[in-house]
Amino acid sequence: MQIKLKAFSTLRPHLKSLHIGYLGESYECPENLDINGLIECLGFSKNEVEGAFVNHVVVPKTTKLKNGDTVALIPPGTPGSYRLILGIKENA
Fold first, then answer.
1. Contact at 8 Å (CB) between 88 and 78?
2. Degrees, nearest 5: CA angle 66-70-75
């Protein structure tokens, strides 16, 4: 299955070291994968990725991916106001 992968900030050096594009390049991954599975396939621990977008919408990490999806991964440490704006953290 092909997805377009985007990753931000502290996630990029790891992907770069593996020669995996992180600016919207195609990435081949197994079928029936969810965000948690993608995180694992990319060699990240679950706590290294705080939020995920699929096709420009914040989604739970249990969201199943489909061929052609655009996936963006967000690391922890995104400033609080941006986390609210992005929808990663709800206003408490």
1. yes
2. 115
**How far is the C-alpha of 90 from the C-alpha of 9, rounded, in Å?**
22
Domain edges within the chain: 2-86
Task: Look at the domain 2-86 and name its fold.
Answer: Ubiquitin-like (UB roll) (3.10.20)
Which pLDDT tens digits describe the chain residue by residue (92 residues)? 999 999 988 999 999 999 999 999 999 999 999 999 999 999 999 899 988 999 988 899 999 999 999 999 999 876 565 566 566 664 33
Cα torsion at 23, 36, 43, 5 (round to 10°)?
Answer: -10
- Tell me if the pTM is above 0.90: no
